[in-house]
């Protein structure tokens, strides 16, 4: 039963009117004080993962169908794009639109190749294999009229890496498009993005699955949509840039493992399963529909299962008293050896290793003798 917020007045009593806070003593109106931003309770964390980002769309559909919604969305790389799109329209209809937009993406549209001399010069400078114009067009198409963080319906932040300082920077206000492009500027694949005089690359270089940011902002339950590589992957290396990318994926996954080992009391982390995934080159978008459906099927099965259903609801006051219990619920298909204690003891070495791998990627983008 809903408890009324008003109290009946006795008969004959006069109603007492409180002074309007928006009107000063001199009768002049004053602007209302800004409301304090309350701490989020439920956060969605969307990782980087390149063309595997379509798996996140399937996961989001499964959660939307079950009315699981966040009050904070954090994104990195392709997760920044998906996170912003979801925050703009956090409904099942909005997710369905994301699906349609993902199905229209091709390698040629997102990563156009060219034989023009300008591209040769770009490669010789070691900047990137592709320009980011295709990515910019995709971001513009997906976000439509949403051109600022403030225009989104759910609080959203994305992370990028300062290429010179080697530190992560979070963006959560002001212009929206450029920070997303910076967050998704995968070294060697896309060029760095300059913001306020600083050069930024993919946020995943330092923080590919930003669980710690969600905890820092006060989230009590964190849903992790991690579609990058878990553990040590097996992949076919055909070109120098493929080998450099593989080393980069491995190195940046260490931060995720470390963060999982440091979950504080009162915080629940729910890692959604990804399902089986085909081996794809970074520019292959031919299996997008299969990836969406795989992400949906595995997430739906997990969310309807007993393990997830038995989770207690987040309790903010228990967490603040330190009486809550930290919990990591791992969906099926995440290898158990990916959570081995030995990996989580790397300290900051994983960050330095990932940054070093990113710099190697830029060098690998330069042409090599015999490359076609």
For the sheet with most strands, the description reads: 9 strands, mixed
Q: What spatial form do the alpha-carbon principal axes imply?
A: globular
Pairing-aware structural class of the strands and helices?
alpha/beta
Number of domains: 1
Name of the level-1 CATH class? Alpha Beta
Radius of gyration over alpha carbons?
23 Å
Number of helices: 15
Number of extended strands: 9
Motif (GXGXXG): 48-53
Protein name: PNPLA domain-containing protein
Region (Disordered): 1-38
Active site: 77 (nucleophile), 202 (proton acceptor)
Structure notes:
With 372 residues, the chain is an alpha/beta fold. The chain has a single domain, classed as 3-Layer(aba) Sandwich (Cytosolic phospholipase A2 catalytic domain), CATH 3.40.1090.10. It is built from 15 helices and nine strands. It has helices spanning 53-65, 78-88, 92-103, 107-110, 117-124, 133-143, 177-183, 204-207, 211-216, 240-260, 288-303, 306-309, 316-320, 341-344, 349-364; strands at residues 42-46, 72-76, 156-162, 167-171, 193-195, 198-202, 221-225, 268-271, 327-330. A hairpin with a 4-residue loop joins β3 and β4 (167-171). The termini are far apart. Residues 1-10, 13-25, 32-36, 115-124, 230-234, 316-326, 332-350 and 361-372 have low confidence and may be disordered.
């Amino acid at each position: 039963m809903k408890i009324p917020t008003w109290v009946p007045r006795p008969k004959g009593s006069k109603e007492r009117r409180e002074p309007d806070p928006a009107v000063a003593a001199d009768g002049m109106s004053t602007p209302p004080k800004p409301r304090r931003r309350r701490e989020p309770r439920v956060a969605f964390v969307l990782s980087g993962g390149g063309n595997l980002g379509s798996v996140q769309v399937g996961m989001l559909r499964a959660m939307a169908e079950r009315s699981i919604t966040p009050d904070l969305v954090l994104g990195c790389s392709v997760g920044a794009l998906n996170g912003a799109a979801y925050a703009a329209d956090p409904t099942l209809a909005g997710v369905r639109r994301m699906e349609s937009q993902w199905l229209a993406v091709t390698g040629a549209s997102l990563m156009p190749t060219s034989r023009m001399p300008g591209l040769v010069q770009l490669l010789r400078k070691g900047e990137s294999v592709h320009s980011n114009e295709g990515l910019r067009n995709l971001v513009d198409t997906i976000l439509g009229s949403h051109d600022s963080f403030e225009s989104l319906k759910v609080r959203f932040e994305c992370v990028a890496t300062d290429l010179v300082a080697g530190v992560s920077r979070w963006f959560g206000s002001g212009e929206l498009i450029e920070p997303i492009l910076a967050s998704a500027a995968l070294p060697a694949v896309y060029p760095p993005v300059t913001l306020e005089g600083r050069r930024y690359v993919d946020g995943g270089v330092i923080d590919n699955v930003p669980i710690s940011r969600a905890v820092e902002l006060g989230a009590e339950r964190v849903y992790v949509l991690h579609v990058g590589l878990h553990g040590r992957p097996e992949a076919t290396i055909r070109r120098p840039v493929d080998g450099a990318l593989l080393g980069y994926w491995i190195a940046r996954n260490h931060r995720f493992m470390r963060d999982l080992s440091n979950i504080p009391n009162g915080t629940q982390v729910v890692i959604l399963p990804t399902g089986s995934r085909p081996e794809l080159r970074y520019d292959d978008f031919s299996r997008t529909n299969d990836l969406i459906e795989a992400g949906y099927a595995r997430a739906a099965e997990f969310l309807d299962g007993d393990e997830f259903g038995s989770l207690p609801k987040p309790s903010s006051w228990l967490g603040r008293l330190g009486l809550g219990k930290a919990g990591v619920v791992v969906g099926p298909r995440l290898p158990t050896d990916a959570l081995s204690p030995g990996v989580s003891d790397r300290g900051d070495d994983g960050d330095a290793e990932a940054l070093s791998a990113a710099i190697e990627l830029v060098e690998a983008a330069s042409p090599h003798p015999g490359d076609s």
